[in-house]
Write a structure and sequence with these properties.
TIM Barrel, Double Stranded RNA Binding Domain, globular, 514 residues, alpha/beta, 3 domains, 16 helices, binds 3-methyl-2-oxobutanoic acid, three-stranded antiparallel beta sheet, binds zinc ion, 16 strands
Length: 514
Amino acid sequence: MADRIFIFDTTLRDGEQSPGASMNVEEKRRIARQLERLGVDVIEAGFPIASLGDFEAVKAVAGDITDCSVAGLCRASVKDIDRAWEALSGAADPRIHTFIATSPIHMKHKLNMTPDAVLAAAVSAVSHAANYTSNVEWSAEDAGRSDLDFLCQIVEAVIKAGAKTVNIPDTVGYTLPHEFGERIRYLMDHVPNIDQAILSVHCHNDLGLAVANSLAAINHGARQVECTINGLGERAGNASLEEVVMSLRTRRDIMPYQCRINTTEITNTSRLVSGITGFTVQPNKAIVGANAFAHEAGIHQDGVLKEATTYEIMTPESVGLSANRMVLGKHSGRHAFKDRLKALGYTLNQEDLDRAFIRFKDLADKKQELFDEDLEALVEDEIIRGTEYFKLLRIHVASGTQDTPVAAVEMEIRGEHAQGAGWGTGTVDAAFKSIRALIPEAKGAQLDLYRVEAITGGTDAQAKVVVRLMKAGVSVQGVGAHNDVIEASARAYVNALNKLVQKRDKPLKNQKGI
Ligand code: KIV
Ligand code: ZN
């Protein structure tokens, strides 16, 4: 299938390696289901041996997903591969993805192995994985800086050992597009059995070239692209899925390839990932930024009104952005609400729907126009909060130019009613202190990030607050949304504390070797 490009999404694995972007099992399952709707070919769900949380997430995603392959990452070791298989074996189409570094710098300083030993380890890892499944992918970590002839030799050997996909990562985002394209061409021309595997690329964005490098690789023979939603990923991130896919779609005239992505699900997917990870998409981000389809200059607006293609190379509808942005209002009924949520990818059970609808009516009373973003924030805040050991019932704050800010809170702590009060340098500080005083687990949890943003325009907009906490090496993110900034902040803080407790007993991720 010369013209088919396979899209391998690694938001749940490499994406999760963005500092602070950790996701719990339920969150990963929701993202995976949305990726399946989006139409990716492979979901890399995690690194099963790295932690119990990763193992459980891969296993759960493997059990949920039927319409695409589910991959688990493992190093070139029997233990890693066995653990990955344990997590993946229930999948409809499991893929074992094993990797080892091949660049001189990694082999010498990180692995302390000779090239011959690396080759032997790669072959034995692939052979071991191939005993479980024929769907084996092998990656040459730091291939962008590896010796090309060694790369050819090891690629030939792993294909012989059973690798059906061979991935060439630019792990450190070092290469330039023409150079990376030539690397792919060299492999295509010099590996005798290359036709027996799909050549894949995995580009990091340290120089802002991940998408350009991926496209150059396609032009030279790569047929799988590894990417992430919103370009999440280690350091500066990975190639952004939406940019790769929309480049292919928009420039089919000179890149005649096909993938099976349903591009109208791009916006929903981007918002879901951003909502769960708390990583806001920059407004000028291609494809999914708030301004990606906004025409500001008068001359542009005039042109677009006369003929959209004057300044628009793709339509907002093609990425699932509705032209009519105001979606629901005070008079909208339960049906319209349910339908809109379904279109946004949320299917709620009756009890959750009732709860969300009450909250929706309350919001619609306060805010004239409700947009998709409002509904998403509402559902994220009200329904999808994971296990709640602690619940905020009520908060009251008082402050003024001359007064000390104070807060009083009422909470449910593990089913018991509790109340407390505190003061602070501002109302948010006072609110957090009063919550902290009621929750022993909050002790020692350092606030690494507090961010507030308006979900839509207008002073009646809902505030969305992201709180990142760090305790004993575990980092979690909580989100809260409400018309009132203080209540949104308190909800985000409580959400983060709940996640901290959920994660508490799980071992830390061992990222050695990645
Ligand atoms: O960047 C990289 O090299 C990776 C591999 C483990 C595929 O993420
Ligand atoms: Zn990577």
